[in-house]
Amino acid sequence: MSFERAKATLSGTRFADFRWVEETASTNADMVEILRTQDPSEDRRPAVLVADHQTAGRGRRDRAWDSPPRASILMSIGLPLVAIDRERWSLVNAAVALAAVDAAPDLRVKWPNDLVAPGAGGGADLKVGGILAELHQDLGGMGDCLIVGVGLNVNWGRMPEDLADTATSLDILLGGDVDADVIVSDLLISLDSRWLPRLGRSAPTVEELLDAYRSRSATIGREVRVALADGSELDGTAVDIDATGALVVEAAGERRTITVGDVVHLRPA
After folding, report:
1. Of 10, 68, 47, whose CA–CA distance to 186 is shortest?
2. How far apart are the C-alpha atoms of 61 and 40, rounded to whole Å?
3. Which helix (H) or strand (E) holds 67?
4. Domains of the chain
5. How far is CA 131 from the centre of its chain?
6. CA distances from residue 135 to 4, 118, 174 in whole angstroms, order as listed
7. Pairwise CA distance, residues 6 & 48, whole Å
8. Contacts of 58 (CB under 8 A, 6+ apart)
C-alpha cells in the first residue's frame, strides 16, 4: 500500500510527521524510539507510523494481533500530552475511536477498545478493529506521551474460517476494495480537527465528546457480561460511560463503574 496521498493530505496538520514501512515487528515499539530520539529543542509534535505488516503485533493483555500483509491498517500514533489535561488522558482512546468511526461510518465502538460492525454476524457484532493506548512517562525530551495503536481490517477479501464468526473486514462490509490511505487520512484529520481539540486545556468540558461516544457505542444499552480484573464476572446492563471513559453497569439495582474489564454482549441491540 502506498501512503503518499495520505502524507500529502496531512501536511499542515499536527500529524504531518507521517511515516510508513513495509514490515516491522511492532509499530508501537517503533514509535517509542521515534519519540525518544526526536530533537528536544523542537516543538513536541505527534508522529504517526503505518506498516503494511507486523510480525509481533499485539492487543490488550498482550493478545496477538495477526494480519496478512496489506490486509489491515496497522498504525501507531505517538501523542505528546503537554496540551491535554491529565484528567482527560483516559479519553484519548475514545477520541481515536470516534475518529475511526468518522472514517468508517458503518462501525461502532465496543467498550473498551474494539471497533465492530453491528449485527454483521447474523445479528451478532463482528470485530473489525481495535485500539490500544499505552502511557509512556517522561519519554526523553517529549515528556509524557500516549502511544495509540490502531488495527483495522480493510482488505481481507475473505475471513479465515476460524475468524468468520467473530470478525470481518471493511471490504467485506462494503462489497469492494477499500483505499487504506483514505481511511488513515480521514481518521487522522478527524482526530486532529474534531476530537483532540475537545480534550485540550482550553476546552471547557468534554461533554460533546462523551455524547458522541454514547451515540456511537455498541455497548451502551446492551445486556453485558464483564470479566473483571480480579477474575470475577459481572452481568448487568451497560447504561453509560462516565467523564473518564469508564463503563457504568447496572446490576441488581446498583450501578458499578468499570475501569478495566472485557465485555461480552449478551443480546443483540
Report:
1. 10
2. 32
3. none
4. 4-215 (3.30.930.10), 223-265 (2.30.30.100)
5. 3
6. 29, 30, 34
7. 11
8. 26, 64, 65, 132
Q: Is 240 exposed, middle or buried (0-12, 13-18, 19+ CB in 10 A)?
A: middle
Type of residue numbered 123: G
pLDDT at 41 over 80: no
Q: What average pLDDT does this structure show over 77-102?
A: 96
pLDDT (average), residues 192-221: 96
Say whether the peptide bond before residue 197 is cis (omega within 30 degrees of 0).
no
pTM of the model: 0.93
Report the chain's C-alpha Rg in angstroms.
18
Q: What is the pLDDT of residue 165?
A: 94
Using DSSP's 3-state secondary structure scheme, residue 250 falls into: strand
Q: How many CB atoms lie within 10 A of CB 109?
A: 26
> pLDDT by residue (tens digit) across 45-59?
899 999 999 987 555
Q: Which candidate, 260, 241, 266, 199, places its Cα nearest to that of 109? A: 241
Residue type, 220: I
Q: How far apart are CA 211 and CA 215, in angstroms?
A: 6
Could you tell me how far CA 63 lies from the centroid of its own chain?
Answer: 15
Buried/exposed 144-183: b ≥16 CB within 10 Å, e otherwise: bbbbbbbbbbbbbeebeeeeeeebbbbbbbeeeebebbeb
Q: Which residue has the cell 453497569?
A: 249
Cell 483505499 locates to: 179
Distance CA(46)–CA(146), nearest Å, equals 10
Helix (H, G, I), strand (E, B) or coil at 228: strand
